[in-house]
Specification:
elongated, mainly beta
Length: 344
């Protein structure tokens, strides 16, 4: 889900000419001495299982995809609990401060809510089903702190270097109740996608280029997520690398529109949590990660008059146009974001 997100166009001095995607971390600098407060709500919906670029049916998963835990007591030979849909919501509070014109510092505090519905097949074989179960998790996510430095800030071309550190403040021991293939509700540690954090300290580097003149701006960014070792449960989520390009158009001082394309690669999970097991795809570390290409578009609004003058509102939506997943995995349907910012 796109959650990097707080800075957008600045409305003071020479910074005002620079507008673009709000949800692109490290894409802007603020004027010296300025502070920005912000809130962003993000939501993501996932459904439809995939292996590689192809869809796979629930029955095919339940009868043909091997269960890596087969051989342990009570474990069937194939995956008998198949995810149907997953949603995630994130509430992000942000604080930014610019000690100089070339350096902007930031901190982000997330609250995460996740929900997953799964279909349970009866017994160790066949296509008869028992029913569905729904698991939920909510709580503090991984806090981020970091900054963006202007390598090139003179003239129309800007080159910005960003570095953030993600702290392991989100829980990785969330539990939920699932209907087993034997028809018995079982409470156990939920699969990796349902945990609230990574459990590791993660580096988030990014380098951005942006340019433009007048009403039109455009740019590109290369970013990554680097996991620093394994967490307390014996695993680390996959590293990520992504490249994106964007363009924005501002017809007037109150609004700007933008579009972005991003190609991302997420690696498989390294290691394994010994308490995450079962005949479900989310418990297998190899069934995580893959390649995606996502198109997104959005709009930013800056209030010009009245008591809300200076308040900035934003809305954006992203839709994947290509998904090659290390599945079976649920594919992403859409990603949505709305936000508020105010600079002082």
């Amino acid at each position: 889900m796109a959650t990097d997100a707080m800075p957008g166009k600045m409305a003071h001095g020479g910074h005002g000419a620079m507008h673009g995607p709000v949800g692109l971390m490290g894409n802007n600098l603020m004027p010296k001495g300025k502070v920005m407060l912000g809130y962003r709500f993000g939501a993501m919906s996932m459904s439809g299982n995939r292996i590689g670029t192809s869809r796979i049916s629930d029955d095919a998963i339940a009868t043909t995809v091997p269960n890596v835990f087969f051989g342990a007591p009570g474990q069937p030979p194939t995956l008998r609990v198949v995810p149907q849909e997953m949603t995630m919501q994130m509430h992000m509070l942000g604080l930014m401060y610019a000690p100089t014109d070339r350096l902007t510092l930031m901190a982000m505090l997330p609250w995460v809510e996740k929900s997953m519905t799964s279909l349970t097949y009866a017994g160790p074989a066949g296509t008869a089903t028992l029913g569905t179960s729904k698991m939920r998790a909510s709580g503090l996510g991984d806090i981020r702190v970091g900054g963006t430095y202007g390598l090139v800030t003179k003239g129309p071309d800007k080159v910005l270097l960003s570095m953030a550190l993600s702290l392991p403040t989100g829980s990785i021991t969330e539990t939920g109740t699932m209907l087993s293939p034997m028809g018995v509700p079982m409470t156990r540690r939920m699969a990796y996608p349902m945990q609230l954090g990574s459990g590791t300290y993660d580096l988030l580097p990014a380098i951005s280029y942006r340019t433009g003149a007048g009403r039109l701006n455009w740019g590109a960014q290369l970013r990554g997520i680097i996991r620093l070792g394994s967490n307390d449960e014996g695993y680390s989520l996959g590293d990520e690398v992504a490249v994106s390009a964007w363009a924005s158009y501002r017809p007037g001082p109150a609004v700007s529109y933008w579009g972005r394309i991003e190609a991302a690669r997420l690696g498989r999970i390294d290691g394994r949590d010994r308490l995450i097991s079962g005949p479900m795809q989310g418990a297998n570390p190899d069934f995580h990660g893959g390649d995606t290409i996502t198109l997104s578009a959005g709009a930013d609004f800056t209030m010009q008059n009245g008591p809300l003058k200076g308040h900035m509102l934003s809305a954006d939506i992203g839709v994947p146009v290509y998904q090659d997943l290390n599945g079976p995995r649920l594919g992403t349907d859409w990603v949505l974001g709305v936000g508020w910012r105010r600079m002082f």
